[in-house]
Amino acid sequence: MARTYTSTTKTYCNNRFITGPDKGYFISAMVLVFIPEIPFLIFICPLFEEWVTPAIYVVSIYIWLAVYAFLIQTAYTDPGIVPRGVYNDSDIFSSDQRQPLFKKITIKGMTQEVKWCETCSLYRPPRANHCGMCNNCVEKFDHHCPWVGNCIGRRNYKTFLYFLYCTGFKCLFAMGFCVAHIIVEASRIRDQHPDYSSANVFNKALNKSHYLSIIIIVYALAGLMFVGSLGGFHLYLLATNQTTNESIKKTFKKGNPFRKSIFRNIVETFCAPNYPSYYLYNKKKDRELKVLENKPTRTSNDSNNNNSNSNILSNTPNLPSGLFSPSSNNSDGSSSQYSDNQNINNSNNNNNNNNNINDTEIDMKIINDDNSRLSMKRELEVHS
Ligand SMILES: [Zn+2]
Ligand SMILES: [Zn+2]
């Protein structure tokens, strides 16, 4: 039997929403974002509605909702979980052999090592790492963020950064208007009571908002220090094309093969389309393979294709009960998982398989999907 370990990741709506196991901090983050907005809208905004524009309500609520949207999107997006391998040690190695712990690969002329993951039964793709909280390997793993309750990886890094910078901007916005509120109220009181001392004027100005303006300033300043320092560090990571995990472990001491110009690093992070999820991909492939299985007859020209289809299905090992039981129990789904991992371990072999099965329309669709996954690994050259 292949080894299986239980993933702690939770999935909803046919794997469309994927999140980590613990949501305690996530709920705290939701509450922390909620708390200051209500007093800000009730006590601070009315002054500026009168003096500046009522649009201040709209702008404030818009940024507030954007913070929530990015927080929830980051928390419930598949970070790029790598489907587990289905290798059985005894299928590949004799009893006195095991998989080598490391394999050397060359990326843009630079040698990197990929490590065998005992838990997931696969060689981790370059830049992937195993998250101990979620118990999965995640592509371009940055870190496991307790505040969003999910890993930050290839597929949700962008929304995580949007969340950080949007929260930072919201803190600055609230602080700016609270400071302005105190100054405007103080000048009003000074005009009405020129004989008041400065301390008295300041005290009465604060009292106008029941001291909430100063409380919001302190609250927002604490938030800004937290997200600002994190946001600044991620700007450095963006510029050097590193993840937090790689930066801490100093993975690219001898050179970073993924590094490009600062402009291109930033543009690729924010403007490139998101990578497809392996799990939604598997669902789509499940449906296509079911259509393939249910096809009544094949044309006479497709005799080779029959062989190739049986190749696809015969390559389908029974997936052990592990991650995401609905798809894991489906033998078709396991086929694509196996195929994905084969891409990593032996891309040449996969290309040969693809060449065998490129005649029928539906097979082409599957191959195109395979190629789209392969293109993600196009810079990878495996020396086994
Ligand atoms: Zn792993
Ligand atoms: Zn995690």
From TrEMBL:
Family: Belongs to the DHHC palmitoyltransferase family.
Molecular function (Gene Ontology), one example: protein-cysteine S-palmitoyltransferase activity
Catalytic function, reaction form: L-cysteinyl-[protein] + hexadecanoyl-CoA = S-hexadecanoyl-L-cysteinyl-[protein] + CoA
Keywords: Acyltransferase, Membrane, Transferase, Transmembrane, Transmembrane helix
Organism of origin: Polysphondylium violaceum
Pfam families (UniProt xref): DHHC (PF01529)
Domains as described in the record: The DHHC domain is required for palmitoyltransferase activity.
Assigned EC number: 2.3.1.225
Keyword Transmembrane helix tagged: yes
Any GO BP: protein targeting to membrane
Protein name per its UniProtKB record: Palmitoyltransferase
Membrane-crossing residue ranges in chain numbering: 25-48, 55-76, 162-184, 211-237
Broadest EC class assigned to this enzyme: transferase
Membrane topology (UniProt): Multi-pass membrane protein
Cellular localisation: Membrane
GO CC annotations, alphabetized: endoplasmic reticulum; Golgi apparatus; membrane
Regions of compositional bias (Low complexity) in chain numbering: 299-357
Keyword Membrane: yes
